[in-house]
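Hey team,

Filing this mostly as a record. A colleague (T.K.) asked me to run one chain through the structure pipeline before their review meeting, and I want the input and output archived in the tracker in case anyone asks later how it was produced. No errors, nothing strange. Just documentation.

Input sequence:
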Amino acid sequence: MDRKEFLKVLIFLFILIFFILITQQILSTYLISINFDFCISSILATVIVSNLFDKRLIPQFLVFEHFLIKNLIIVLIISISILSTIFAIKYYLSNFVINNHIIFHQVIDLMLSMLFVAIYEEIVFRGLLFEWIYSNFGSIVAILFTSIIFSLFHFYNNGFDLLSFLNVFLAGVMFAFLFYKSGTIWLSIVFHFIWNVSLPLFIDSSLSGYSYISIIHFQNQYEFANNLLFGSEFGLESGLITTLAILLVLILTAKMIKTSPYYEAIRLKKLYKV
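Output structure:
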């Protein structure tokens, strides 16, 4: 990484931390609790750094274009199908009851929180860091490095273990591959958001070691099989079923997601400094 790229990283991190500290002072505790501070800080830091170095107001990986719609539909179908299959397996292995005490605003809070988390993490890991590493070391190094950092980012979460590390790493690979194949982080944001919302709400699982509200409560009939497949304290992401699901998603996206000519042209221009 040359000095200019390294300077980008330092400036971005400095601006990001600065905005997080400022927004946490300005915003209410309620807004901070749903991760709005991290989301707005990452967007502002991204726009500022991009404008400083690339003379564009909006980073290229955030731009919409018509080719994106087809890929978004494919991601929606894949993500919903995978999560529905996981739900069906858990339903078969467990008894379940409906949570009649859930409050509507709790669901809205969870969805907003997970949306902000998805935007923040994708901008930081698959947007900026990936692009900077990719421009210097290529796609494979960018995918592997950002995925390792993404996994270590969860190191202090409750119940984090070796299988959790592997699954979060594979999730990072999946998100990075979605970004690399399509040229935009909107696909990984959508998948990330659906996954983060579905695990607590419909699968009755902790999310990366944290517990949230659930519409359905599963009562385990086979404890060993449940822990092996669906994980324990860290949640579904520490279970073997997540490993299989992510590998399947990688295969499906490799076959079905199409590379946009628009983003391919942008990358070629960057590669040859046109």
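Quick notes for T.K.: The mean pLDDT is 86. The chain is about 70% helix and 5% strand.
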